């Protein structure tokens, strides 16, 4: 799937109340489950896997759900809830508008991301919250999608999905982690980490199909 290179405020999109549900996929607290293998550009059934490249203490309840309408109108991606998160869920279908879709939050937490082990894009680093910062529901497979975190501080990114996990530091240059490539449909959980335990940094997360 993807490659890793990602301020405050949530973009004005159509918001609806977020409620919890069961995540479809792996448990992030058991990183050695199905889908984890060595670093690098892995491939999965039927689609290229995301790759990672360079480019929070989290509070609150369930946040908001962001429904991003696909090209041609309609009600957007009305998907299943993907579980609890601190800063809400983003639902996407291919051809969504506006592009990029954005969300925001605070990085950091008291969980060492190394506990997630070796992801398909290398080791997980930084300090993250126990609860995911964001969830994402993809109604259909995406041939290409980039998730980017942008912050004034150095951050990391951890993503758990139906077919594995992806972690991004800033090994590709810069200080903004990103994961990009092909994605399978389903629920994803996302954490944004800080390098220092207890450090909290504001960030903006964006989702784009633009290459």
Helices, strands, pairings?
Layout (H helix, E strand, L loop, with lengths): L13 E4 L25 E2 L2 E2 L2 E4 L9 E4 L21 E4 L8 E6 L4 E2 L5 E2 L2 E2 L3 E2 L5 E5 L3 E10 L3 E7 L2 E5 L8 E7 L2 E9 L7 E7 L3
Parallel strand pairs: 5-6, 6-12
Antiparallel strand pairs: 1-5, 2-3, 4-16, 7-18, 8-11, 9-10, 12-17, 13-16, 13-18, 14-15, 14-17
Structure in words:
The chain has a seven-stranded mixed sheet, with no helix packed on it. It has a five-stranded antiparallel sheet with strand order 4-16-13-18-7, with no helix packed on it. Strands 2-3 form a two-stranded antiparallel ribbon. The protein has one domain. It is globular. It is mostly beta strands.
Instruction: List the secondary-structure elements in sequence, H or E.
Output: EEEEEEEEEEEEEEEEEE
Largest sheet: 7 strands, mixed
Spans of at least 5 consecutive residues with low confidence: 2-47, 55-61, 69-76
Helix-strand category: mainly beta
| Radius of gyration from the alpha-carbon trace, in angstroms | 15 Å
Shape: globular
The count of helical stretches stands at 0
Whole-number total of structural domains: 1
Helix content: under 10%
Give the strand line-up of the largest sheet.
1-5-6-12-17-14-15
| N- to C-terminal distance | 14 Å
**Portion in beta strands:** 35-45%
Q: How many β strands by DSSP?
A: 18
Task: Determine the mean pLDDT.
Answer: 74
């Amino acid at each position: 799937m993807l490659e890793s290179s990602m301020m405050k405020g949530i973009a004005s999109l159509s918001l609806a109340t977020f409620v919890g549900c069961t995540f479809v996929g792996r448990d992030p607290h058991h990183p050695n489950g199905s889908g984890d293998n060595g670093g690098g550009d892995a491939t999965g059934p039927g689609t290229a896997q995301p790759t990672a490249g360079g480019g929070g203490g989290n509070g609150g309840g369930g946040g908001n759900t962001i429904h991003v309408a696909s090209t041609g109108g309609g009600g957007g991606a009305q998907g299943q809830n993907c579980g609890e998160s601190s800063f809400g869920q983003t639902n996407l279908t291919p051809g969504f508008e506006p592009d990029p879709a954005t969300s925001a939050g605070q990085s950091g937490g008291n969980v060492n991301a190394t506990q997630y082990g070796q992801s398909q894009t290398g080791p997980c680093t930084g300090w993250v919250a126990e609860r995911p910062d964001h969830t994402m529901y993809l109604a259909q497979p995406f041939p290409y999608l980039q998730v980017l975190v942008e912050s004034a501080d150095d951050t990391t990114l951890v993503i758990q999905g139906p077919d594995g996990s992806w972690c991004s530091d800033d090994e590709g240059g810069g200080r903004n982690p990103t994961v990009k490539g092909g994605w399978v449909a389903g629920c994803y959980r996302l954490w944004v980490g800080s390098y220092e335990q207890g450090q909290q940094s504001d960030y903006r997360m964006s989702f784009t199909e633009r290459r």
